[in-house]
Fold each of these.
Amino acid sequence: MPKQIRLNAFDMNCVVHQSPGLWTHPRDQADRYNTFDYWVDLARLLERGKFDALFMADVLGIYDVYKGGPETALEQAVQVPVNDPLMVIPAMALVTEHLGFGVTCALSYEHPYPFARRMSTLDHLTKGRIGWNIVTGYLESAARGMGMTEQVGHDERYAVAEDYMQAVYKLWEASWEDDAVLRDRTSRRFADPSKIHRITHQGQYFQVDAIHLCEPSPQRTPVLYQAGASTRGRQFAADHAECVFINGPSRKVVGNIVADIRRRAREAGRDPADLSVFTMMTVITGRTRAEAQAKYQEYLTHVNEDAALTLMSGWTGLDFAAMPPDEPLRFTEKANAMLSALEGFTISDPDRQWTVREIARHAAIGGRGPVIVGSAEEVADEFQAWIAETDIDGFNLAYAVTPETFSDIIDLVVPILQDRGVYKRDYAPGTLREKLNGPGRARLPASHPAAKVRR
């Protein structure tokens, strides 16, 4: 039986996500990001296309590395203004039945105690369709905004994350027993206090002494996504993640990352097959190759390479404006931002040297990921080739023009994948975790670190 392809839509509660300048396209609706109508319409569209989830990016801070200030980011709306992604999820959940929601939340700036409540609340309201994309932050401007003089170092941020995970696991998994809630109107007892426990966590970075504020939600722990593909990030993913979001400009780069993550998962005592790996991709398609190419050329008239370098500078921590445009980019461990972004254009593929000018052109549509332009048949072929050659499980699909990019894929590409038997015709029942892993698997398996704290 051929491997089933999983699709997530990749969006952000802002105007410019991965394709700077494309918000000016007459058919683009990204500037409606601050309305319920935009998100409700998108959720309905994605569920019609049987997408597994809407994967919502987020960032704290301003992209102010490029040219030493925030002016380009502010003028070009480069991921600013950016609203809270969690606030729009209940509205989308109300108008859908199956679509999952993977939401990005940085653990660096919020204590585990209130955060655990926020995730449990969303798991209840979505009936078990919530996932958490675990990130540690990468912008110095975010650290300053939170009252810090500078951002914590890259590897130490993952040490903070390890401590954080142990605290939230205890709150989600160990505080309330499965049968603690009675809802017994006759005896006037809502819960049995003897089955509700105060948990304690005394870590290097976080201390918790509390009862979790929420009764057990359908999944307890949300589906765990992780989006850091640096060496340290891969180890964190192998230890904790169920879904791993990686990024790379080529199959070679992506395939090497996938192999390393699965190897690390095996060494951590987990089944590598329990990890679903997604890579980012932007698809521009039409009924014919000529139609897709014409659309791509039309999109190129709206790109802004200056804004693209603003994104890349923020991701890598390097000011691309200060570099010669035709000099190859080199890896430096001094960067204290998203090391995987820097690795993807340097040491991950030693056969290819990227200049600043080439990176600007590449990132102008689709950010760091590849852009596929072709007929629906050709896109379907590319999907299957990437799956076969890199061992990924699916794609986080960014948009060039929203919602046009998604509707093109749903109307043109999805039916071909379904006819080939590599894409579902209907959703599986149950929670997001059950849809990903199978019926009766609403909770994390015994092999996962979270299971160690259960009563």
Amino acid sequence: MKHELPIVAIVGRPNTGKSTIFNRLVGKRRVIESDIPGTTRDRIYEKTMMRDYEVMLVDTGGLEIEVKSDIESDVQSQTRIAIEEADVVLFVIDARQELTSLDFAAADMLRKANKPCVLIANKCDNGNGEDKAFNLYELGFDKPVQVSAIHSRGFDEVLYHVAGILEELHFVKKEEQASDDGSEGVRIGFFGKPNVGKSSLINAFLNEQRVVVSDQPGTTRDTTDSLIFYNDQKLTLIDTAGLRRRGKVNEDLEYYSVLHCFKSIERSDIALLILDASESISKQDLHVVQYILEQGKGLIVVLNKSDLVIHKRSDEKTFRSYIAKKIHFVPWAPLLLVSASTKKNLNMVLDYALRIAEVRKKRIQTSTLNAFMQKIRYRHPPMSRAKVQPKIYYGSQVSIEPPHFVFFVNDRDSFHFSYKRYLENRLREEYGFEGTAMSIEFRNRRRDDSKAKF
């Protein structure tokens, strides 16, 4: 019996509805859907259930015979790799159109790959295309499964066929597998402007060409998840589209890429802000940092391509000073100088990420926190220009990931905004909250609260 996760790849020529089918099978809008051929460029992975089997579903770029650019060539390579990896292939055809030479070429490729294949006749909407679906027998496969991805019709039969193949291949059903928490481990998101090397770093970590890499900005449009194990711990690396300035986001595809990127920040545990050592820090980089802070994530600033511009210690000192001034509001975020091409300091990135993931789970006992607060209160009591003298009665850590502290006070409006920053700095100094955002809240104490003040 095979205990590994079976891989199901969706392939076909461009604009046959592969991404829409992918989204229907995973039950969410995981991939950008568009009528523009070539929207999907990377292999997009997502776990999902197909009847009794948990599978890794893979969306791919459209199969083409003639390629007109290096990016299109890379896309075709990605699709061929997906076919080689797959245990089952879903071959998608547009049932409304006549078969083309590209369809027959794709069919020949799949037969040579000798992979179990389910032929899917998509766009059988309200009877449209169902008559033409029978012409698909010319491709040499079994009876096509007629579906309408846009109306979510016919997918029960798709699941039935895939489950039957997986049973024949002796894969283990989900309920028969050894217990697994099913988690993604520590989720590390790669964020930054286009062309700073996010995809190159992902490939360097994976030691394979998992995502398309190009000098052309905007190559990555979807978010791509890759699972690795490091020091016996599970990590999910999340590659994202580059974030442009708002004035540059004027196409639907770009809008949805940015939307997916912000959603990726929300589901990341640790965010890597990737900077190009040969470029200056932009306002867009600062906007990304601000959103990471708002979402309460861990943060590591990663200076990529450092091998090209930093040749001596004085250069490194200059760069660190420059970045510290530009991103002065996150002095607690580690700054790492790396190189995707030479793999310099890549392990250090993962080491810091794991360390920060543990820090985000740290919880300070209320008695310990209040003993510490009493000490720093005498060192630096809160001051105010208001008539009410601000007082802190007691505090408590109410949650983790990120650490969230609530301090009960007599009048929260009487505290100067800088006192929160002072408390944050002292807490980081005392308890080592390195690399993670944290939240401090002043809350007015209720009258019936009998706890004594410091």
Amino acid sequence: MTPQATTLSPLRYRTFAFILLGSLLSNFGNAIQSVGAAWHLTAAHQPADIVALVQSATNLPITLLALPAGAWADMHDRRLVMLFAQIAMMLLSFALAGLAFAGTTQPAVIVGLTALLACGVACFNPALSASIGGIVPRVELAAAVALNILAFNVARSLGPAVGGMIVAAGGAKAAFVVNALSYFAVILILWRWKPEPAPPVERRPLLAVIGEGFRYAMGSPPVRTIMLRAVTFTSTGSAAWALMPLVAADLLGQGSVTYGLLLGALGLGAVFGAASSTWFRRRYSSEAIIRAAGMLYGIGCIIVALKPSLVIMLALLVVSGAGWVQALSGFSVAGQMWSPRPLVGRITAMVSSLTFGGIALGSWLWGHFAESHGVAAALFASGGAMLVLPVIGLLFPMPRHEAATH
């Protein structure tokens, strides 16, 4: 493998900035749409398991499509893959907004279109992640991935808070319109981006390309461990994200603005977590970071379940969000670092698939648990399980990022 330069040229900096801005805008719009969808179902007095389906619908398609999408990212022009995905998402968002204004937004329609939008995300994200590895020198890759995660969590911080205000002012349909409009800017960025020509890739059948990536992942103990830790972490801890509208409505008896504030607090903590992830990674092992992050997040969920005041709850969610994204950042960076460059789209897609799959499965399970036992009990159980989860690390410790040689 030819060594890469150790510094970024001005052109590469601009290219990476383009990619980062596109990721920020796309995820900002998606966060607003999710707020609108979840709050629409909450305001319609849908049960907890239906409200939690918004998170499942947002994440399950990413799980199912991540691997073929990763193969597409390795086989085709990544810019075109991202561009087509954004155009499809824009059209779906306008369709959802149109149905909302027509008054035909039944729960099945909301959940179904949310799932279709997630299909676009499933195609967009692997191409985006794989593009970073082709732009940034390997010595700066971990920091670049962390910066991309920071952009993602800035969107998740501002998006829910802004989404809550939009829903309070104009209803869920207004959030759907804003999401649809956000794709214009991303499409323009991708249209203007002129990446360096990629080396020619041998065109092979899709299943053969997928199989190659799957065989490598299953034959690599570090990659298997990363995927195992990702799915167990997110499935155990997804209750807070799935049930947050019910925390606002049922535990606190408040409306959409409070819901936006709660998600905004989680997202703000996520920004702090992503911004500090490189600092922690230079000083501590991946295993130590994952363990501490999970325990921090679990303690926050338990105390939130005890229904403290709103101010205390917001402070706890900031801390919990920081722990959550420290772990997710660790899984994402580890997937990048342990991926051979020719397989990076597929390996990172599999890590993403298990990460989002855990959120989808956990949201569905915790939604049913909350419907039977209550929102507070679900949060308490999720937080308690997160405190026990680090025991897995005794058998399957996270691979050390500095040991990656690809």
Amino acid sequence: MYSILAVDDDTHFLDIVSGLLQHRKYRVETSNNPTAAIELIDRNNYDCILLDVKMPGIDGISLLDQIIRLKPHVPVIMISGQSSLAIAVKAIKIGAYDFLEKGVETDRLLVTVQNAIAKKSWQEEKHTLLDELQKQFQMIGESEGMQSIFHQIKTIAPTDAKVLIYGETGTGKELVARAIHFNSNRAGKPYIKVNCAAIPETLIESIFFGHVKGSFSGAYMHQTGKFELAHNGTLFLDEIAELNLQAQAKLLRVLQDGEIEKIGATQIQTVDVRIIAATNQNLAGRVANGTFREDLFHRLRVIELEIPPLRARQLDIPLLADFFRMRFSEKYNKRITGFSPQAMNLIMSEKWPGNVRALENLIEKAVIFTKALTIDQETIFTALYSDARDDQLRSQTGSLKEFLEQNEKEFIEKNLVLAKGKKQIAAEMMEIDRATLWKKMRKYKLDNS
């Protein structure tokens, strides 16, 4: 049952409104005291508030301002016995849902209340969905580079400016695109992703703009294009550098005119789409060598963001590793409380050419194989080099002795790096004595200075 508060110094009017709304199965509370009404609003969660404009003590406009600050998502319908366009405009500007005159038809009042509550319910569902999406696509980073990215996202998200995102593979370019969308005014609208590198050249126009049935051989049914699907929302063009020049020309035309034409259609459609593009290529270099249109390049780069690689975000590595540990521990129903210091040192020593995506894959493997409360160094080492060893096994043509010696050499080198060159510490980490370590270092011609 929806809950409504009616605030008016006219108790007769309150009785009428209360009876009307209760008859429609609303739960209604009333107050003829503005100060007491604020206390009620602070303590309770109402689905709608009816508020008189003229009241002694605190007038309705001042009370509206307090309500908006206290409970910004609760719709407030202003009701006045003295019609004034200036007051109505002021109330709407402050944040009132609607402005009605006393004596308004019953049906009009009921429809307004119903619509106000429906809007509140939709907003609550939207915020719940956005919270879930933001948790799912959580971005983590305390490093200076990522804090700068977060600040830029917050600044540009409310605009409709086109954004061009640069970054190495695995840095999280799509996460940034999603963050921009879900923090924008288009958050409740479609977010459509297109991987430009995965589209066959012959289908680019159909994928982007759609086609009608029978428009070409194999067009057995109507297809809605990505631009139409993203209408009023955001279209994320991943790997934009992979589009050929013909596709670039067609894309440029849409960005200039905001119009699309389906293959085989006779009518042109207008679309309202925010474009976010991403690439791991040097687009300026592509323009210079003639493989990317200069006019399209300038259209796309209204705002440019560059995501730093993980190796430049050392401060973020433990945070990300722990985040992935918790996520995958929950996914695989395992109780893993953290990493051993040696395991974290090994993680920190990596250069991470695959960036955050590679770190995520590593932690998932480690969680799967860990049987203890903490992830140890051996598990991380196994997860790091299992793929490399698999590749080596598939290509190995030498003896077993050569294969084992190569892996032993790599293991000793890694531990020496972790121990910062201190032989005693490295030996303890590998659970061998110092003399054995020196012997093996001489064998493999490692620096034993």
